[in-house]
Amino acid sequence: MDYFDFLGKNRKNNRDNDNIGLSQEKSNDIVDKNLVKAVKGKYETYNPIRFKVVIFCMLAVLGYLLYGAANVTVNDYQKFLEKEGEKRTIRTQKLPAIRGSIYDRNGRLLSGSSVTYDVVLDVKAFLNDQDNLKEKSLEKYELNLEKVGALAKVIGESKKSLLKKIEDNKTSRYLVLKKRIQDYDHKYLSSLKIPNLFFETSQKRYYISAEETGAIIGLVNDEGGAEGAEKSFNNILEGRAGFVQYVQDGRKNIVEVLERQEAKNGQDIYLSIDSNIQNRMYMEAKKAYIENNASAVSATLLDVKTGEIIAMVNVPSFNANNVKDLANRQSIRNRNITDVFEPGSTVKPFVVLAGLSEKVINKNTIFNTSPLVINGHTIKDVSYQRNLDIKGILQKSSNTGVSQIALSMHPYVLPKLYKSIGFGDYVGTGLVGEQAGKIPQIEKRWSMLDRATISYGYGIQITPLQIVQAYSVLGNKGIKKPVSLLKIDPPYVGNRVFGEKESETVLEFLNGVTESLGGGGVKARVEGYEVGVKTGTAKKVEKGKYVDKYLAYTVGLAPIENPRFALVVMVDEPKGGAYYGGAVAAPVWSKMMEIALQQWNVLPDDYRDKIVEYKRGQIIPSREIKEQLKQERIDKEKQVRKENLERYKMLSSYSGGRRVSL
């Protein structure tokens, strides 16, 4: 191929390549245009209709806001100013109600209130009246330091401490500097005319015989009654607070009184307590507490005729006037209603009562009281006597004797009797913290061992108040009256829960417990009076187990012929050597009962028997006649007991039994 052929061929190839390039460019332009059209159709964001809707909504909202602003500014301007002005000028001041007082049954004041004042400072206004806070420290304020010093002295702070408190609360409009200052301090501070210092009326509770009556009266706090009668009867005592609503100007002068509702003061209440007996019983309890090195001593005295609580003492106690005493919660507790215990021997008179009522025994029934084995468990007496009649069973506190009486009755009889005298139920004094105790369900399957053990007070739990209520029912010859902490006039009629005749028989037997010949309650005797008591000693239960800590107690009635008072005394964990109820609690019971009988002028038996008086047309026998009748009765009883014992020995040799009813 020559040069020209080569050159011509090369030009042809170039033209072909140029044509191909132009075709590719054209093709690319066509593809780009189609791609743009496709993308534009798929992702098109502009929509004229939607755009118009959005613009319309925005204009509508803007128009509504402009209308509201115009309405507030133009139409409701006056109302708006009035409302905001009222927020700044109308004030409401609380008018506190004076809490009612608590009196004893004779009108002696036990708890009352005095009008006091809380000292309040508007710190922000106080500082604004002086100088610019941002430029000067508090110490450099142009304060009347003499007045500030006087204020500090009244509220019990140093001047430096008060200034620091003000500085730490610069923006406060309500700073309480001191609560419950007395009237003379209020008058003194008012005379100083300290700017933006004002007073709010309050009250301070004070207590007479605070330590002696602490557990009964209780105490109050800022919310109202917190313990004892103060809490139980709070709705009666606290009254209803009032208020006054007024308009004040910029200088805090009252321009107009808009509304006023006077406070309704609380009502006074009269308790059934006799403060004289209460105070003297407390001193005896405190003495026993120290002498026996006990953990606590408590006692409750009931009026048998009315069911009223005449005294209820607790040691250790507290003084509600002393704030430091309130830190010990144990001293605030009223053990007479909160502490439960196993009553032990003190329930034995009621087992005898049930046996007499069911006619499974009589006054002359004699029991063989040697150890008794039930389901592999041995029941025995502390003081073993081979043969005892019913009076002897109570006098010697025989466990085997009452066990045999209980086993002679239907299983439900004894639990029902316990329930009828108040065991397992709230007594209903209204005092906060009262416990109901616990007795087994009547309908349970009773084993012979269960029936025996509850006859001498094991397996049940009651409070001291419940046991003394039970004895008051016995002293009232079977009539149960509600127990009351408030004075009752006239007394409630009550309901009969067991027979009068059986009650009189048991009361006669109880008197034997204090007889010098072997009675367990000898130390409970009261000179000049015939009394009936039952003593008891129980091991304490902790975490479900018996521990070597003891509770000694004595409960009883006086005078036994016509009981006026029922009294229970509990000595918790005596550590002075003796721990039996007859040795520890009985002497305290004697002293307390003597106080009550003398304070209420209950004539001793010696003097009462000398008086010849008319009662319902009948002449009451003189002392000489009664002594003669009493001696004849005693001689006859001795003769009958002797004959019965001889007959028992004869019959038991044939019957081989443990019990013979003569």
Number of beta strands:
24
Oligomer: single chain
Strand content: 15-25%
Task: Summarize the biggest pleated sheet.
Answer: 5 strands, mixed
- Overall shape: it is elongated
Question: By helix and strand content, what is the structural category?
Answer: alpha+beta
Rg over alpha carbons: 45 Å
Any overview of this molecule?
The chain is of the alpha+beta class. Strands 2, 3, 4, 5 and 10 form a 5-stranded mixed sheet that branches. The chain has a 5-stranded antiparallel sheet with strand order 12-11-21-20-19, sandwiched between helices. The longest helix has 40 residues. The radius of gyration is 45 Å and the shape is elongated. About 3% of the residues have low confidence.
What is the topological layout?
Elements: H1 3-42, H2 48-75, H3 77-89, E1 90-95, E2 102-103, E3 109-121, H4 123-128, H5 145-155, H6 159-168, E4 175-181, H7 183-192, E5 197-207, H8 210-217, E6 219-221, E7 224-227, H9 228-232, H10 234-237, E8 242-248, E9 254-261, E10 269-270, H11 275-291, E11 296-303, E12 309-315, H12 329-332, H13 335-338, H14 348-357, E13 366-368, E14 372-374, E15 377-379, E16 387-389, H15 390-396, H16 399-407, H17 413-420, H18 448-453, H19 464-475, E17 479-480, E18 495-496, H20 500-511, E19 532-542, E20 545-558, E21 565-572, H21 581-599, H22 605-610, E22 614-615, E23 618-619, H23 623-655, E24 659-660
Helix pairs in contact: 5-6, 11-21, 14-20, 15-20
